[in-house]
């Protein structure tokens, strides 16, 4: 079943990063945008994706909700054979206003110049090339109604930064991305809010909204697809997060991951491990003593996932899957004194089992159940629909 080209696939500069749609048995090469017939000719492509999800807690069905989780549209414009512009605009939770929970945000906005057949450069707001989900996050491209916890709580998908980056794609199956970017801002940490406990880095990301830039970050990603159907890769990010603000001790974030995906026959197998640290948290936390949410020194997560294309007929396909993940958003705290240092959080484990049913390559129906090892009151049934084009 041929998957429709997404915005990232249309960029056509990093084929090794384009993982297969779940309904396929092998990793597919991304669809390539038609090149202009001459250097003076330009073209514009419209893309989009979205999802509507139902979440029904098993212990409290009265809390069942349905949400238009995301509605995204993108524009890709090619100025000539070497220069193009890519963008995506996202609306979350259907309505955005001062009294609603919705948001409108720019998810990507960058220019790309193809210097040679192997090397391109990007400048603007880009998605970080981390993990398996951050760059490929359309609902037709992952299993389950909701995005996995590891790549949302630890890796703050969808994570983007203002950046200058180089992208190299080579015939031996390697893709390299490296550059400098904006970083997180520890001054945004709110010790009275649970947001930092839900996602430490998600609570301090800047999204290029008047982003503090006294400190910058460096990042790099290497992915290899030298064997058909196999992806092996990793990512690392190091950045200052204090930005020279008065009274804020110097601190650095480090985040890295390793990941693999293998799609032999009708199977789709994947695994990922990620870990992050924040330095000098003892000094950062001293003013917050007594508040409920202090800054963790370390956090981590991992998951393994297996799916199979059990049935297909024409455009229709059914893929059951199961995923097990473990994550901890505060696995350790720096010592700030006896009776003052918080205890590390318990590592949470989650089993998700469900089915992706593809009506066609660009439209999917999903259903799953999730069981939590610690917070069992969060056990739930999910149903959703998603589209991409």
Summary?
With 389 residues, this protein is mainly β. It is 5% helix and 47% strand.
Strand content: over 45%
Mean pLDDT: 92
Might you state the CATH topology name? Porin
Helices and strands, in N-to-C order? Answer: HEEEEEHEEHEEEEHEEEEEE
Alpha-carbon distance between the two ends: 14 Å
Structure description:
- The protein starts with 6 loop residues before the first helix and ends with a strand.
- The chain is globular.
- It contains 4 helices and 17 strands.
- With about 400 residues, the chain is mostly beta strands.
- A 16-stranded antiparallel barrel has the order 1-2-3-4-5-6-7-8-9-10-11-12-14-15-16-17.
- The protein has one domain (about 5-389): Beta Barrel (Porin).
Topology, pairings included?
Blueprint lengths: L6 H5 L31 E15 L7 E14 L4 E10 L10 E12 L4 E9 L22 H5 L5 E10 L4 E8 L13 H4 L18 E8 L5 E11 L11 E11 L4 E12 L2 H5 L12 E11 L2 E3 L2 E17 L15 E13 L2 E10 L7 E9 L1
Antiparallel strand pairs: 1-2, 1-17, 2-3, 3-4, 4-5, 5-6, 6-7, 7-8, 8-9, 9-10, 10-11, 11-12, 12-14, 13-14, 14-15, 15-16, 16-17
Question: What tags apply to this protein structure?
Answer:
389 residues; mainly beta; Porin; 16-stranded antiparallel beta barrel
């Amino acid at each position: 079943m041929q998957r429709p080209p997404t915005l990232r696939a249309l960029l056509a500069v990093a084929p090794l990063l384009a993982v297969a749609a779940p309904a396929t048995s092998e990793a597919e090469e991304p669809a390539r945008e038609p090149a202009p017939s001459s250097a003076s000719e330009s073209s514009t492509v419209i893309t989009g994706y979205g999802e509507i999800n139902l979440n029904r807690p098993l212990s409290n069905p009265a809390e069942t909700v349905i949400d238009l989780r995301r509605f995204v549209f993108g524009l890709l414009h090619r100025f000539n054979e070497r220069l193009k512009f890519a963008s995506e605009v996202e609306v979350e939770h259907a309505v955005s206003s001062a009294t609603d929970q919705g948001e409108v945000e720019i998810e990507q906005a960058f220019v790309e110049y193809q210097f040679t057949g192997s090397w391109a450069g990007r400048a603007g707001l880009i998605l970080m090339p981390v993990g398996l989900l951050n760059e490929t996050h359309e609902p037709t491209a992952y299993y389950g109604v909701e995005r996995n916890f590891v790549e949302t709580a630890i890796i703050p998908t969808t994570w983007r930064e203002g950046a200058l980056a180089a992208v190299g794609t080579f015939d031996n199956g390697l893709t390299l991305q490296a550059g400098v970017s904006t970083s997180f801002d520890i001054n945004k940490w709110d010790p009275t809010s649970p947001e930092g406990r839900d996602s430490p880095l998600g609570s301090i990301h800047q999204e290029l909204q008047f982003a503090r830039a006294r400190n910058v970050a460096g990042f790099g990603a290497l992915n290899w697809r030298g064997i058909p159907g196999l992806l092996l890769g990793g990512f690392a990010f190091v950045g200052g997060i204090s930005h020279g603000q008065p009274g804020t001790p110097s601190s650095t974030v480090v985040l890295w991951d390793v990941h693999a995906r293998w799609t032999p026959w009708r199977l789709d197998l994947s695994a990922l491990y990620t870990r992050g640290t924040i330095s000098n948290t003892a000094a950062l936390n001293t003013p917050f003593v007594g508040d409920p949410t202090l800054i963790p020194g370390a956090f981590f997560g991992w998951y393994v996932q297996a799916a199979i294309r059990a049935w297909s007929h024409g455009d229709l396909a059914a893929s059951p899957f199961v995923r097990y993940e473990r994550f901890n958003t505060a696995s350790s705290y720096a010592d700030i004194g006896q009776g003052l240092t918080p205890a590390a959080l318990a590592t949470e484990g989650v089993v998700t089992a469900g089915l992706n049913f593809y009506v066609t390559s660009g439209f999917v129906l999903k259903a799953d159940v999730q069981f939590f090892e610690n917070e069992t009151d969060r056990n739930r049934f999910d149903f959703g629909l998603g589209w991409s084009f």
